[in-house]
Amino acid sequence: MIWKIFLFLLLCFVSVAGIAFPIVQSPKEWYEFPFIVGLEQNAKIIFFHVPTAWLTVVAFLMSTVFSVQYLRTKNLDYDAKSYAAAQLGMIFCILATVTGSVWSKFAWGSFWSWDPRQTSIFALLLIYGAWFALRSAIESEDKKATLSSVYSIIAFLTVPFFIFIMPRIMTGLHPGSADDTNAGPIVDFKMNSSMQLIFFLSMIGFTILYFWMWNLGYKSIILSEKINKQLTRG
Amino acid sequence: MKSYALFQKDFHSELRTRYAINSLAMFIIVAISVILFSIGNENISPSLTGGLFWVVIFFSAMSGLSRAFVSEEERGTSLTLQLIASPATVFTGKLLFNMILVFLMNIVITLLYSMLFAEFIIQNYLLFFLTFVLGNIGIAISSTLIAAIIAKAGSKGTLYPVLSFPILLPLILTSVQLTSFSIDGIPISEAVFELAIVLCYDIIMISAAYMLFDFIWKD
Fold it and tell me: In whole angstroms, how far apart are CA A195 and each of A19, A116, A189, A205?
């Protein structure tokens, strides 16, 4: 119970600090963020957009790891875990896409411009969509679990291409791209310590939130399966 | 050599019915003529024709390649296959068949395309050839594996392009880029990185396919 209150306070602090702390030319107080050329006030999205994108990938990774576990053990428990992770991954993927495209309207001038990062988040969205479409198409429990596990492993193999290779060979607008001259890798160089602190607190807070939500989702899947079984038995 | 026998079986049954070849040929003509109609008298840039070229290839592949496994499920012969051959053998046979189908299909597409599109002029033939070969191998591997999933999922035809597109996307994006390089006449030494990506994709997918096919194939 204590950690839930702690998480609530942490996320409250991150939200308030991320939105309200001012960005100034030369930060003196601990609560002032530095002015990054090319990002300016738009830089604040980093506290909310980056954690959602990070959790999209974490959820996908967890879903794949549980898929491998399922194929090794054929235990349907792992399939439920993988499903719960993918459900959350889809939600965070949509959140990352929407926050990113709203941000890009103000930073780059249009909602969507096929930047390599936008291409890769779009591909992730497609993968999640295809995965749920595949699951809904199969009736039998075992077959559903096996085929969707195989598909999630194949799909995971394409992720390195999108996340690590594409953004580096294609020219892009996203901070941290191959030809980014003004913002550069922000996390390492341009953020001052207070901005980094809030950024990492936000990452930690959202990650804990994700694991909590994932645990709840997993439990609810198990419970609904139990109830279904009881109902069918009469 | 069992996989070669399997390939021969598919090849003969294909020659007898000509289902895949006929539908593929018609699909290629339909897809190219739709593009031609929609372009009309507009002048399009050469790099756009390179992109449209891969659109035709992707959708033609999606129309014909799922037959390999779906036909086994439809005829109810997949259980017999499971008894007489190991999963790797079955996959090799089907992959050979699809590979030949993809190469035939894409040679036809390339010929038709270069006849019908005046703007589609390749300047670096060797680069285009390498892209063509590596891209076709990648398409054949991924689509054969997805075809197996589709066949076991109750041969849902509409699901095939949906499932294949995200898997083929890195390959297609890189191939489109390589094709526009070869239209612009960029030397191979400047396109090594992109070629390496396509090669990596092929290797990763073929190893994954052989590792995962057992789980799909065995009920």
Answer: 12, 26, 11, 15
- pLDDT of B133 higher than 90: yes
Helix residue spans in B40-158 (DSSP H): 46-64, 67-75, 78-84, 87-116, 125-152
B96-111 in b/e form (b: 16+ CB < 10 A) is bbbbebbbebbeebbe
Decide if A119 and B194 are in contact by the 8 Å CB cutoff.
Answer: no
Residues on chain B touching A162 (C-beta within 8 angstroms): 169-170
For residue A10, CA distances in Å to A124, B7, B34, B115 come to 29, 62, 56, 65
Residue A23: strand pairing partners: A33
Q: Compute the distance between CA of residue A189 and CA of residue A195 in angstroms, rounded to an integer.
A: 11
Please state the domain count of chain B.
Answer: 1
Distance from CA of A176 to the nearest CA of B (A): 20
What is the structure's pLDDT at A84? 94
Q: How many CB pairs under 8 A join A and B?
A: 73
Of A71, A137, A155, the CB nearest to B166: A155
Residue B16 to chain A, least CA–CA distance (Å): 32
Q: Give Dmax (Cα) for chain B.
A: 57
Which of B176, B191, B177, B101 lies closest to B137 in space, CA to CA? B101
Chain A contact set for B205 (CB, 8 A) = 154, 157
> For B62-80, what is the mean pLDDT?
83
CB within 8 Å: A154 and B167: yes
Q: Is the pLDDT of residue A178 over 60?
A: no
Contacts of A208 (CB under 8 A, 6+ apart): A3, A7, A10
| Nearest chain A CA: its distance from B88 CA (Å) | 16
**A129 at interface of B, judged by CB pairs closer than 8 A:** yes
Please check the confidence at residue B156 and state whether its pLDDT lies above 70: no
Closest CA relative to residue B213, chosen from B93, B77, B61, B59:
B93
Confidence check: pLDDT of B161 > 70: yes
Using CA coordinates, name the residue in chain A closest to B209.
A154
Question: B-chain residues within 8 Å CB-CB of A164?
Answer: none
Distance CA A48, CA A202 (A): 7
pLDDT at B187 over 70: yes
Residue to mutate among B62, B91, B173, B202, with most A CBs inside 10 A, is B173
Euclidean distance between CA atoms B177 and A161, whole angstroms: 15
Residues spanned by the domain of B189 = 2-217
Q: What is the pLDDT of residues B204-215, one digit of tens each?
A: 999 999 999 999
For residue A181, pLDDT over 50 is answered with no
